């Protein structure tokens, strides 16, 4: 197989940027090489040059999606960055219950890079805990990601015990079904919860989104760290079009909107609100 050449790496890097706006620097060369090794073997190819030729000769083939799946980073876990969930419980949900977002009785949240589902299912637990006993309140979560592979995993809602280590025992019992026999050690999200989540593949930079509704909260966490400043600016501006007035944008704690022109008010680190 050999090492990936500079020419081949530059081709892959430029293609990934064009399709996803993920900015791969020179430091990612070994990582890209390692992740693409499986794609070479899957296509019975002997070199990265052959793989690049495959992508060039079949630009509309499914291999492009496999490439994006291979390059995308999907590190996540239940209740990651717990401060966001604390803020959800202490501020956003009380505001919703008090009619801060108008007369609607359905809270709408968008997890725009949902990965393998831990984020939106964590949100589902938090929402059900707070709103589940309020007869006039409901919720739904729109989940999207650019990777078909992680969306397929997330939509199943099945996790092993290790992935659920941050989920309280009482929540595990309340919101998950314990597997038996060949599924021993695995837990599935209960259908009364999972039916309120919708999963759909989405490139955040596609010309159009498949929905026009606006959300009360958008979780866009640990996404912008992979983009250059120009791309961050474009994304932040676009997301504001899908928030209701007074809605919240939550980003990763390693991220900031400093230096970006945006319409939001900074509420707390990594928490922003659209005026209204």
TrEMBL record:
UniProt keyword annotation of Flavoprotein present: no
GO molecular function: protein-glutamate O-methyltransferase activity
Location of the CheR-type methyltransferase domain: 1-276
Class in the EC hierarchy, top level: transferase
Listed SMART domains: MeTrc (SM00138)
Catalytic activity from the UniProt record: L-glutamyl-[protein] + S-adenosyl-L-methionine = [protein]-L-glutamate 5-O-methyl ester + S-adenosyl-L-homocysteine
Biological process, per Gene Ontology: methylation
Cited Gene3D superfamilies: Chemotaxis receptor methyltransferase CheR, N-terminal domain, Vaccinia Virus protein VP39
Xref: PROSITE patterns: CHER
Protein name (database record): protein-glutamate O-methyltransferase
Protein EC: 2.1.1.80
Alphabetically ordered keywords of this record: Methyltransferase, S-adenosyl-L-methionine, Transferase
Organism annotation: Pelagicoccus mobilis
């Amino acid at each position: 197989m050999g090492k990936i050449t500079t020419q081949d790496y530059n081709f892959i890097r430029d293609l990934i940027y064009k399709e996803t706006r993920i900015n791969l620097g020179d430091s990612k060369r070994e990582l890209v090489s390692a992740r693409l090794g499986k794609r070479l073997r899957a296509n019975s190819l002997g070199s990265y040059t052959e793989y690049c030729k495959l992508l060039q000769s079949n630009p509309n083939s499914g291999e492009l999606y496999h490439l994006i799946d291979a390059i995308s980073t999907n590190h996540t876990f239940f209740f990651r960055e717990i401060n966001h969930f604390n803020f959800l419980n202490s501020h956003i949900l009380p505001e919703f219950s008090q009619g801060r977002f108008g007369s609607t009785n359905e809270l709408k949240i968008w997890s725009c890079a949902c990965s393998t589902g831990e984020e939106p299912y964590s949100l589902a637990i938090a929402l059900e805990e707070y709103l589940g006993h309020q007869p006039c309140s409901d919720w739904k979560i729109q989940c999207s990601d650019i990777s078909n592979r992680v969306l397929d995993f997330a939509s199943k809602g099945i996790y092993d015990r290790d992935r659920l280590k941050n989920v309280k025992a009482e929540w595990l019992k309340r919101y998950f079904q314990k597997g038996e026999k060949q599924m021993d050690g695995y837990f599935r999200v209960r259908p009364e919860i999972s039916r309120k989540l919708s999963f759909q593949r989405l490139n955040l930079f596609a010309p159009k989104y498949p929905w026009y509704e606006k959300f009360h909260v958008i979780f866009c966490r640990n996404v912008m760290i992979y983009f250059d400043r120009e791309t961050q600016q474009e994304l932040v501006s676009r997301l504001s079009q899908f928030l209701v007035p007074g809605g919240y944008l939550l980003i990763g704690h390693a991220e900031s909107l400093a230096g970006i022109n945006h319409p939001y008010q900074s509420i707390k680190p990594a928490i922003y609100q659209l005026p209204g």
